[in-house]
Amino acid sequence: FFSPFCMLATDVVWVKLGAFVSIFLTGLAAGALPLLSHTCTKSPAVLSVANVFAAGVFLAVGVCHLLPEAAQEIRAAHGQLDDRFPVAFLLFIGGYTVILVIDRVIFSADGHGHGHGHGPTAAPAAVEVGKVTNSSTPLTANGNMYDDINANCEGPVANPGGSQIPGYILLLALSIHGTAEGMALGLQDHMGDLLALFVAIIAHKWAESLALGIAFTSSTLPCRRALGLVTMFALSTPVGLLLGMGLRCVLSPLAVSYTLATAAGSFLYIGASDVVVAEFVAGRSNWTNLFFFLLGLGLMVLLKGLTHDPH
Q1: Which of 93, 122, 203 is nearest to 101 (CA)?
Q2: Tens digits of per-residue pLDDT, 228-255?
Q3: How far apart are CA 250 and CA 240, in angstroms?
Q4: CB contact burial 160-172 (16+ within 10 A = b; e otherwise)
Q5: Which of 58-72 are b and which e, b meaning 16 or more Cβ less than 10 Å from the residue's Cβ?
Q6: Are 122 and 128 in contact (CB under 8 A)?
Q7: Contact between 174 and 113 (Cβ < 8 Å)
């Protein structure tokens, strides 16, 4: 019943299982931290560096790993059609456009689009680390905004006058991203591309989870429900990974290549249009961010060269 294409090498399967567990635990721990900790403090500089590193990783994974693999398979299948209409690159643009519409049109229509800015003068976003839009929760002198969180997770999280809507919208937007990233990870069958994509996701997941947890601290949600929603988000990427592994068993190699080309476009958006725009802000020094952006980019290019498989 299952296609032989779904058969994977044992080491690839073990890496995917390890990715499933580690991505879930990372997302859960980072999202629960602001909900449960009395002393959780913001660190915009650290989060900004992590985000730009992840942006470089995503950009290189999309352009250097996923797109070439997909383009090779698609060109072999379509021949002359691909000479007239570069199918892989059109799907690449389509994937970029889909995420653009979701992130900047649908979820920004009511002013709640999600973003990744963490610097002191970052561009406006629904959630910035240490600052939640429409929140009346003040920052103390040491930057701690969680002194009123109940360590036993009883009652509302914080800010009884806050709205639940921004947190739910952020949860939906980030979960769509997470599931798409997980599916791309599950579709991989080459160790080099698999490891590169895993690094991109794990470097990004904890910052998104932390931002989501901070959003819920400024809502009227009970702490237990907020923890449940953080758990749902933590599971979005692992569930996407399982979906991707399942799709390998029912899709042809060509169909998988279509999916990878589209996913590569979404990674271009995350790396170049989402995170970079938010983190490289005019009026402040961006040299540190540039260094870590190039570090993430360079490491993934190097990994591509070291693990090249002329399949």
Answers
A1: 93
A2: 999 999 999 999 999 998 888 887 888 8
A3: 15
A4: eebebebbbbbbb
A5: bbbbbbbbbbebbbe
A6: yes
A7: no
